[in-house]
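Risk register update: the risk of archive-format incompatibility is retired. Evidence:
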Amino acid sequence: MEEQLYTTTKVAKIFGVTPRTIQMWADSGMIQVTKTLGGHRRITAREVERLARELGKGKAEEKAESPSVTADKAVKSATDIVRIMIVDDDKDLLKLYQMQIESWETPKTAVYLAHDGYDALLQIGSKKPDIIITDLRMPRMDGAHMINVIQQNPDMDHCQIVVVTGLNKDEIHQNYDLPENVIVEEKPIPFARIQRLVKDYTQDQAISSSNN
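Archived output:
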């Protein structure tokens, strides 16, 4: 008996993300995709179940839209809220970032945490962060690999990426290939600097919106 195969569109519906996100996961090796003789992408039921466990969803079931995704869209519709994803393998540092950012009175924020680039890519499809603050050296998938995958996704054109690292410029240049539009800051970064970067982002977006 042949194993059931899903289209990328079907898998996107199962996980509440766009088909482009599934393609991004496949391109980065996070989900294994096979091709039919006609060149169409297909994903096995076993691979869908594996990714469902990876995402902590238990058994994957198709649904029109989960409450969490609906809530995310509601947050996205509030233009005064900036969605920030923090990517770092230091759990204590993640908590510190979260506590500081969530304490701001302005700008209003929604904070999402990821423990490495792999974890971040799993979340980005549904969270669609406005700003990503990431370390470079992390297990499973480093920050540079994650950034390059994200910047291939047209759905993430709006996203500002900030690298916060303890590496100096020479070490970064020798070991990583970062796009020119990525902001690089030294670790530890003052939280006042992060807040300034977020405010600059909101101002730039406001200007861009008024010009359209």
